[in-house]
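notes to self, project folder thing:

trying the whole complex as one job this time. last attempt i did each chain seperately and stitching them together was a nightmare. three parts in total, labels are on each line so i dont mix them up again. if this works i'll redo the older ones the same way
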Amino acid sequence: MVTHEEVLKIAQLAKLSIREDELDTLTKDMDDIIRFADTINQVSAEASGFDNINHLENVFREDTVIPSLPREEILKNAECQEDGYFLVKKRG
Amino acid sequence: METGFGKIKKLSGLLRRGEISCAELTQNYLDAAAAENPALNAYVRTTGELALKTARRVDEKLARGEELLPLEGIPMTLKDNISTKGIETTCCSKILAGYRPIYDAAVWEILQQQNAVLLGKANMDEFAMGSSCETSCYGGALNPHNLKHVAGGSSGGVAAAVSGNLAVYGLGSDTGGSIRQPASFCGIVGLKPTYGAVSRYGLIAYASSLDQIGPITTSVEDAALVYDAISRYDERDSTSRGSDAPTADSLGKEIKGMKIGIAREYFDGIRGDVKAALENAVKVFESLGAEIVRFDMPQLKYALPVYYILACAEASSNLGRYDGIRYGYKTERYRDTNEMICKTRSEGFGDEVKRRILLGTYVLSAGYYDAYYKKAQNLRGTIVRTFRDAFEHCDVMLAPTVPVTAFERNFTSLDKIETYLTDICTVPVNIAGLPAVSVPCGFDGKGLPIGMQLIGNTFREATVLNAAYQFEGATRKTAFRAAEMGVRL
Amino acid sequence: MKYELVSGLETHVELSTKTKIFCGCTTEFGGEPNTHCCPVCIGLPGTLPRLNKKVVEYAIMAGLATNCEIANISKMDRKNYCYPDLPKAYQISQYDMPLCKNGYIPLSNGRRIGITRIHIEEDAGKLVHQDGNTFVDYNRGGVPLIEIVSEPDIRSIDEAREYVEKLQLIMRYIGVSDCKMQEGSMRCDVNISVRPTGSEELGTRTEIKNMNSISYMTKAMEYELDRQIDILESGGKVEQETLRYNETENTTSSMRGKEDAHDYRYFRDPDLVTIHVGDEEIERIRALLPELPDKKRERYRSELNLPEADIQLLTKYRSIAEYFEAACEGVKRPTVVANCIIGQIFRRLENDDAKEKFEIPVSPVDLRDLVLLLDSGKIKMNLLKSTLEKMLDTGKPASELISEKDLGGVDEAALKELCGQSIAANPNAVQDYRSGKEKALKALLGHVMKATRGRADAQQAEKTLIELIRKLP
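result (full assembly):
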């Protein structure tokens, strides 16, 4: 059974805020989904490597410089910036 | 057997012979979109200026007598989770409103090299999470066969545009069925390639180990042509393999003696019109000389919970970056950074996305990791092996694409879990990283299309598409119906 | 009650690769903010990481140089947490299958400090706080790091210091990092606890984060050691917490404001594939390693007759050691070469940086040739020293600076005569010397050296002068 506390704790980790009026439905939804997910514990499974599905390995790149993008591009989508930095204002 | 359902070659021919200019062709599609899109909501933004500019370039090429590349000058669309430099790309989420990528997705680079004419970005379920397109912040895309029903999801916009003849083809993405299901709902063709066949660089990630980009078209031949163009190795994607087997040239080979595998579990849950259509499909294959092989795949029933656990876990991590600092939506009022981030995300994400992020965070959290995430990974390995064993006994597998036809708009009869369950036929394919194509195979009593899925072994797109091609040839008249809208050729 | 210190260190070392760990942006230090960035390292939606081969190679070298086992199979994991300096909201690191483990660093007191593991990861961007606002620069984001975790084997602050210095020395020798704490290419987190001497149980530990200088680290440890002992002696309990060191007050204090819920939800990064390092590859990399400092020092001790202090100086930087070794080829007395380096050459290198670079106009071959002249008796020590000065000034080899007539020493008879001349020409100096002023001899010697243009053997000349003076009436 997923509890309110668990939902709030998970929400904090996920950086989501849950409103009072959402908490009940959300907790119920989570509980339903977890119960649905729980069906995997009806069966045993042998440990499989956490591998890429095509078993790719050793995919590397060389240590060669590729020119960086100009700063205007990097900052282009940032609503808040100053002096070439991304800016997170103290308060909004 | 009938052939010649492909639009791409037909249009390419018209352009080459000068029977229509690319500009005129493009304008036709833009006009159709202007007329029909308000009702259909397939496009969330159109790119008319760019489209006409590209079209003019193609016309100039033609005027110089140059050869056209296979997809050159063909009007198309891209799902709005595929990065297009300088063109707003939002995943139909408020949290990416106004975001203009500063780079192109690999697949878009490839298509631009062929002067593909981009008509606009297509609607989708928010961050590709959904099966109806209705979680889109722009509202859902509708089904050209019946506007009271959804186009499906998450690539609903692409399917609606292609099925509604507002684009010749489109690229969607498929994580748990998001290309195949809308193709099935809209009565057209959708191919999910083998994992690794198409570069994911530039595809805004939902679940990294499951996502693949693929074509949605009105014919198998078109799907093959588009797949051949986009299935290239890309060094920017460490999971990219590319494909070294072109498919369009091997369409038309006879399939006498081909072994078509049918897993009982796929057919357990289907009833009524869908069941009838699928059984009929089996008969068609038999009449084409294929051998039907039946077997059990009991592990299939775990595919859905495994999918939701793994997909949501990866998604919860992939979506952590949306905090308003570098791009996208940012909340206006906050007292400190933490509140800024939490409010931004809570206001910017829709409910389904939030649910999946929470689920994903839960199954990765300390105390639950072993029982859910780790267990799901292990079961994934089991499912992969199950398919590998199945393909020892058959060349392709046949299955329904979806147990139902297109949902009604704003459907409330299905609760969360019931909705998730409709993914039951598509999801195992993503878990196993296999290629699968959905082709139309009939209609239900209301005239809504029914889709059939052909699943192949890894990198066997040629085999799968050929089998689909043969089926299409035998059933086009009864299984396919062009929607009465858009550009008629 | 006597207490003993128990400590372990987590050290982050910036690798000196040309590019970042997952993209081709430069790792050059400095640069205007956000000018060394690309879609990948600022984590734009849809971007994917590509692992820099050199990073893996350097990490393996670091592991081999610290006696670690290198994992044949290893992978990258995501460490998920939200902070403005982390653009993807996860750091790509290694969790349960690091590249290296079970190594050690030997200390001069014979003890070994175990190394639990070394793994690779990406660095975060830099935050600048001003008036409560936060300015973010992602230039550093994606710079490759290795994290070296030691066992809690350290038992004294001196051991901690030596461990860090040893680590720096080794990493610089193998060329994987310049380990400059002041520049941030090496940072230490210190875990520290105390327990009654003789006890087997570990006390509660605290962690002092982000030490960026060895002297601050030792001061912080001293403070924390005292603080913990005070708590225990007054019957209290040490709380497990994360601390920062306050430089101006020389205190440690709790770091509140950082995430308390440290559930990083590690899972394998699906965008990256398995790293498979075969045994052959490990051996290939091992062969790339230079002779390590410990081994080198041992070899100098057994093969050369040098004082320990000199050995330490010569082996402090690989550049010096290799110069020294090249200059010693075929030389009879390596001590001469050593003295040239430690004396005259070091005098011209103003600081540690310059010593590490060791860019001097005299090549090791040139120095060797000069010393060989001494060995063959063609010149004496004075001339060697003065010639070396000229070589350092001009960059010219000895052959260009020493004329034919300077070669060859002064024979006994000629020396005696010159000494006699010196005595005759400097009666006051002779008088001073005879009345006990030993220094006066130098004036007489100088006369002889000048007359022979430095070719005379100074020691021999002194002996001769003293003999002659003694014979005077």
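what i see at first glance: Chain C has a mean pLDDT of 91.
need to look closer tmrw
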